[in-house]
Amino acid sequence: MLQFLLRRTIQSFLLVCAMAVVVFIGVYAIGNPIDILINPEAPPSEYDAAVKRLGLDLPMHEQLWKFIVNAAGGDFGKSFVHGVDAMGMILSKFPATLELAILTVVFSVIIGVPLGMIAGFNHHNSIGRTIMTGSIFGFSLPNFWIGMLLILVFAVNLGWLPSTGRGETESLFGVEFSFLTLNGWKYLILPVVTMSLYKMSIVIRLSRAGTMEIIEQDYIKFAYAKGLGKYRVIFVHILKNILIPVVTVVGLEFGSVLAFAVVTETVFAWPGMGKLLIDSILLLDRPVVVAYLMLVVLMFIVINFIVDVLYALLDPRIRLTST
Amino acid sequence: MYKKTKLAWVVIGFLSLSVIAHAGSKLVVAMSSEPTSIDPYFHNLSPNNTVAVNVFEELVYLDDKIGVAPRLAKSWKLLAGNKIEVNLRQGVKFHDGSDFTVNDVIYSVCRILNIKNSPSSLATEVSSWKDIEVVNDHKMIISKLNAAPMMITRMSGFGIISDSISGGKKIVYNGGKCDGFKYVETVEFDTGKAMIGTGPYRFKQYIKGEKLVYVKNQNYWGKDDMSNNIPVAYDELELRPIKNAGARVAALLSGDVGVIEAPAVQDLPRLEKNPNIKVAVAPAVRSIYIMFNFRDDAPEIEGTKGKNPFQDRRVREAFSLAIDRNLLVKRIMGKLGQVATNIAPETMHGMHNEGGLKYEYNLTKAKKLLTEAGYAKGFTVTLGTPNDRYINDAKIAQAVAQMWARIGIKTKVKSVTRSIFFSRRNKGVYPVWLAGWGDLTLDGESFIRALSGTPSKGKSYGASNKGAYSNAVIDALIDKAGNEADPEIRAQHIASAAAIIHKEKNWFATHYQLFPWAIHKSVNYHPVVGSEKTSFRYFSPAK
C-alpha cells in the first residue's frame, strides 16, 4: 500500500509540473493581454509601463523560470485583470462549483443506477426499452440547450424557479455553501438537473449492461438456489458488482464537472470556477488560467486515486499492486 | 387526496417565495459584463465605471442638453495663466458622516495617479492637473499643464473618494507629487471598508462574480433637488453580472430582474412585443469603422504585384463607395445601428455635420475609381475582425466582404476572438480590418487623435492608428485643438480635421452603434446621457 502511494505521488508531481509548463507556453503563445486590458487611448509610455509591471517584457524562458520558482513556494502570481492572488481567486469560487458537482453526481447515481437495473431486469419488455430510449435523449441533447429549455419552461413561463444565479449561502467549516439553505435549493434545482441528465443516461446504460451481464453469472444462480431472498441478491451481490464501471465513469465525470462546468455555469450565471476560467481565457489572464489548470490536474489525480482505492474495496479480485 | 394537498402547498410555497422576493422597493439590474473590482480607480473599464458612479460622485456630469453640469463642483471659472477656480458644493456629507472638502478631491487625484496593479488606469482623466492651491475647505485653484480644454469635461470621468479612509491627513499636491498621501489598497474597497462616497446609494455587500448590493443613502445631499435629477428612489439596488445574453433576457422575462443591459439583437423584437417590457436605446457614442494598413509591406494582399493598393486614395474611396450602409443597418443592426454620415456620431463635440457630409454608395463609381488606379481586374485581400467585441461585428464584416466582391475585390474574412484580434491588429497582421471607437466624454477630438494622428511616443497620438497613416495637416489641427481653450474654435479645428479624414479615408465609418436597455414596465428610466456607462440614479419605480 505504501509503495503504491509513493509511486502515485511521484508520478502525480511530475504530471503537474509537465502540465504547468505546457499550459504556460500555450497561453503565452496566444498573445499579449495588455492589448485588451489597456485603455485604447493610452499613450505608448503607459503601454510600456503596463508591460513592464506584469513582467511581460522578459523573454519567455525567464518568465517561465520566474513562474516555476514562485509556484514552488505556493505563489501562482497575481491575476493580470483583477490584481489579486490567482489561486486565491480560484479557490474562492471552488465551493460553488463543488456543491454543483457533488449534487449532480449524487442525483445522477441515485436515479441512474436503479433505473439502469430496472432496465436490465426488464430488457425484454417495453419498460426496459422506454428507459433506454429516454437515456439516448439524455446524452444526445446538448447541455446548454437543455439548460435554456428548462429556464424557458420553469422560470419564464411558469415562474416557479429563478432563472439565474446562486441562492443564499450558509457557512459549513468556514466555507459558504448554498445547499444548506432552502432558498439555495431553489437556485440549485435547474443547474443540477441540466448537468445530471447526461451523466444519468450514461449511468443508466452502464448499470443496465452490468445488470444484464451479472444476472447470467453462475454465482447469482447459486445464490438463488441456496435460498437467498430476492432483495439480498439484488442489493448485495448484483449492485456491488455493477458498481465498478459506474464508479470509474462517475469518478471521471465528477472531475470533468468540477473542471469544465463552463457551459452550465454560463447559462445559469452560476458564480463558479468554470465561468472564471472562460473569462480568464478570453482576457488572456495567464496566471489564472495556469493556476486553474494545475488545480484541475491535481483534482483529477486525487479523484483517480480514490477511484482506485474504491475498486479494491468493491472487488476483492483487484489488488492495489498494479498501477 | 392528501398527496394532492401536499403538492398544492409546495407549489403555493414556491410561488409565494418568488412574490416575496419582489416586495419592498428593490431594483435588480443584470449587467452584461462584470467589473474587475469595485475600487473606482482600479481599472478604467466600462462596468467598473458603471457601478462606481452610484456611490462615488463626480465633480461634474455630462448632460446631453446642457453639456457639462455641476455635481459636487458647484461652479468654476477660468482664470488667466491656465488656471481654473473651482467652488465645491457645501454641506455634502460622505456615507460615514465626514464632510466633503477640497482635501477629498486632492486625495482622489493622488490615488488615481498612484494606483497599484492597474491594468489600465484613470490617469488620463487627471493628466493635466499640475498644482492644486487650497483657498479654503470648499474652494481650490487648479493650475493646468497647458491649455487643456477638456479638463473640466474630464472631471466627469472619475468619482471622489473620502480622505477619511486613510486618516484624513491634509495633502499637498504639487507638480504631480502628493505630499502626505497614504495609500489604501484595492482589497479595502472590495471588502467594503473603503467604499465611502457621497452618492445616492451606499455600499452593502459585494460577492465577486455574483452580485453587488447597494442601499439607499438616507442622507443624500441631493435628495430634494429635483432640478434635472430624479430623487433617489430604490431602497435597495442589486447589480448582477449575467454575461450570457440569452440568460439575461430570460431573467428579465421571468421577472428575476427589472432591468437588463444590452439584450441581444435577435431578442429585441420579442421584447418590444411584450407589453410588460420597454426597450430604451441610448444615443450613439461609438463608430464602427474600417481602417487600412498603409505600410509598404502590408501583408495578405494578392494580385497587386507587391504594391500596397491602399496607399492610393482612389482605392480607399472605392472600398467605401461599395458599401451599402443602409442595407447593413437595416438587415444586420436593426434598432442598434445608425447609418454613418460623418466619421463620428453627431452627438460628438465638433462633429455636428452642418456641412451635410455623408458616405456615398455607388458601385459604378467605385469600379471606375479602381480602374483608374490600375486595378481593373481587382485583387485579393483579407479583412480582419473580432467576433465578440462589437454588436454583430463578424456579420458586418462578412456583409462588407460580399459588397466588396461586387467591385471585383476577393475578400477573405478572418474573424477571431477579441484577445487574438487586437494582438494581431496591433502587430500589423491585417491589410484592412473592422474595429470600433467610442468616446464617453462626447468629444470628437479623440476620434481624430487616436485614429488618424501620427503615432509617436509620449503623446497619445495615433494610439489606435495601427495602419501607420500619417498626415501633417491633421497632426497640426490636433495640436491646435489640444491647445485651444475656446470650445467653439476648438470645435472648428475638430470639424476641419474630420472633413479631411472623411475625404482621405485612412479609415471610414460604416455605422454608429447604439446601446440598448430593456426595462420592465414597473421601472422608469430617464436617461441623461445615453451611454455605455449609466448611473442607476436615473431609474425609479413607476407609479
Mean pLDDT rating of chain A: 83
Based on CA atoms alone, the radius of gyration of chain A comes out at 24 Å
Strand content of chain B: 15-25%
Count of strand segments of chain A: 2
Give the CA-based shape of chain B. globular
Main sheet properties of chain A: 2 strands, antiparallel
Description:
The complex is a heterodimer of chains A (323) and B (543). Helix content of chain A is 74%, strand content 2%. Chain A has 323 residues and is mainly alpha-helical. The mean pLDDT of chain A is 83. Chain B is an alpha+beta fold and 543 residues long. Chain B is 28% helix and 24% strand. In chain B, helix 8 (313-321) runs antiparallel to helix 10 (363-372), helix 13 runs antiparallel to helix 14 and helix 14 packs antiparallel against helix 15 (487-504). Chain B starts with a helix and ends with a strand. Mean pLDDT of chain B is 86; it is low at 10-23. The interface between A and B is large, with 54 and 60 residues.
SSE blueprint:
The complex is a heterodimer of chains A (323) and B (543).
Chain A: H1 2-30, H2 34-37, H3 44-53, H4 60-72, H5 86-121, H6 126-140, H7 143-157, E1 170-172, E2 175-177, H8 182-214, H9 218-226, H10 230-260, H11 262-267, H12 273-282, H13 286-314
Antiparallel strand pairs in A: 1-2
Helix pairs in contact in A: 1-13, 5-6, 5-8, 5-10, 5-13, 6-8, 7-8, 8-10, 10-13, 12-13
Chain B: H1 2-22, E1 26-31, H2 46-52, E2 60-63, E3 67-70, E4 73-79, E5 83-88, H3 102-113, E6 129-136, E7 139-144, H4 151-154, E8 172-174, E9 177-179, H5 186-190, E10 201-207, E11 211-216, E12 236-241, H6 245-253, E13 259-261, H7 268-273, E14 277-292, E15 301-302, H8 313-321, H9 325-333, E16 337-339, H10 363-372, E17 380-386, H11 393-405, E18 410-416, H12 418-427, E19 432-438, H13 445-452, H14 472-482, H15 487-504, E20 507-520, E21 523-525, E22 539-541
Helix pairs in contact in B: 8-10, 13-14, 14-15
